Amino acid sequence: MSESPEEEQPSAFRPFTKAERIQQLNEIDKSILQLVQTAGQTLKILTASQASDQNMSPQERRQAFEAASNAYLRTLQSVDVRRSGRVGRDMEAELWAKSRTFLEDLEKGIYNGQPISQDRENGNKS
Fold first, then answer.
1. How far apart (Å, rounded) are the C-alpha atoms in residues 71 and 77?
2. Residue 33 to residues 3, 29, 36, 64: CA-CA distances in angstroms?
3. 97 CB-side CA count, 13 A
4. Average pLDDT per block of 10 residues along the chain, 126 residues long
5. 57 phi-psi bin (left φ>0, alpha ψ -120 to 50, beta other)
6. CA distance 29 to 119
7. Which DSSP string do the residues of 103-124 spell out, in sequence order?
8. Nearest-angstrom CA–CA distance, 118 and 79
9. Count of alpha carbons within 13 Å of 21, Cβ hemisphere only?
C-alpha cells in the first residue's frame, strides 16, 4: 500500500530534541532567578517602609510595591505557561506517535502484539 503525501512528510508533532529541551529549561531557570530577584525587591520595598529612614513617600512605596508585585506575577505566569506548554507538547507528540503505531499495527493485522485471527475480524468469538 503506497503512502499518501501527508504520510511522507514529517509529523508536525515531533518531540523536542535533547538540546531544545535543555535550552527551554535554561530559559525557565533564568526566569526563576528573575522571580527570586523580584521577590527580593518586593521585600526590600516592604521593609523600607518600616525603616526609620524613609526616602520614599507612602504613595511612591505603594507604586513601587505594586510594580514589583506585578513583575513577579507576570514572570511566574510565564514560567508556568512555558513549563506546562512544553510538557503538553511532549505528551501530545508521544500520544500521536503511539496512535500512529497502533493504527499501523492494526493495518498489519496485529493487536496488542498478537496477530488478529480471521474469526475475530469477522466477529466470531471462538
1. 10
2. 49, 6, 5, 20
3. 10
4. 46 72 86 89 77 71 89 88 71 80 86 74 52
5. beta
6. 57
7. HHHHHTTEETTEEPPHHHHTT-
8. 53
9. 9
Q: Give the cell for residue 77.
A: 505566569
Q: Which amino acid is present at 6? A: E
Q: Would you tell me the crossing angle of helices 18-48 and 58-107 to the nearest 10 degrees?
A: 160
- Cite the beta strand spans of 1-126 per DSSP E: 110-111, 114-115
What are the cell numbers at 112? 496488542
Q: pTM for this one?
A: 0.48
Three cell numbers at 43? 521585600
- Cα 45 to chain centroid distance, Å, stands at 33
